[in-house]
Design goal:
Strand content: 15-25%
CATH architecture of the largest domain: Roll
CATH class of the largest domain: Alpha Beta
Shape: elongated
Radius of gyration: 33 Å
Order of helices and strands: HHHEEHEEHEEE
Number of domains: 2
Structural class: alpha/beta
CATH topology of the largest domain: Mannose-Binding Protein A, Chain A
Largest sheet: 7 strands, mixed
Helix content: 25-40%
Distance between the termini: 90 Å
Length: 192
């Protein structure tokens, strides 16, 4: 009886797994693992996108720096021009927005018109000049005393994209004027 029990114990210890894998089965398993890894990677990537701010997501759409013209609800006189832009943006110098084809217009923050598409409205806005503090009348120099004045006798520079395409020089980018610092206008803003 002892011998039968010993044989039984030895038989219980031996356990054989016999799996026959062929190349097709190995390839299918590898593809399945790659698919699962890819779906997992995409799922993790979507979590990081949804955690981003709306501005960061919008900026990532083209990789271009964004700019906009403040809307009619954000009109300011010359002394408040530097405070009119949304967080993450600042009052633009003309030279920062001079070539708009190198930028992306933020239609969520910016003014648009019926035929704007994804671009700005052809409206005036205060813009930095790159000039010293000045209250004169010459566009490109006038800057409401470096954007600190709202005096009726002081002037600042306003620009808009050219809307008269029959202009003798073709289609220039910007049209500029000077106007009194006490008047309220939109402001050109650019991403920090």
């Amino acid at each position: 009886m002892e011998r039968k029990q010993l044989e039984r114990t030895e038989q219980e210890k031996v356990f054989v797994i016999d799996i026959h894998l062929n190349h097709g089965l190995i390839a299918a398993m590898a593809i399945a693992l790659l698919f699962i890894a890819g779906v997992g990677y995409l799922a993790l990537g979507m979590d990081s996108v949804s955690a981003s701010s709306p501005q960061a997501v919008a900026a990532g759409t083209t990789g271009l720096r964004q700019y906009y013209l403040s809307t009619g609800t954000v009109l300011v006189d010359g002394s408040d021009a530097t405070t009119a832009c949304a967080s993450g943006y600042h009052m633009a110098s003309l030279w920062e927005i001079y070539e708009p084809s190198n930028l992306e217009y933020n239609i969520d923050l910016g003014a648009t018109a019926d035929d704007s598409g994804l671009g700005p409205a052809a409206s005036y806005g205060w813009v930095r000049t790159g000039w010293g503090a000045n209250t004169g009348v010459i566009p490109g120099q006038a800057n409401c005393n470096a954007w600190t004045s709202n005096d009726v006798g002081h002037n600042g520079t306003l620009v808009k994209l050219e809307s008269d395409w029959q202009h003798p020089s073709g289609i220039p980018n910007w049209y500029s004027i000077g106007d009194s610092c006490n008047k309220k206008y939109a402001v050109w803003c650019i991403e920090d």
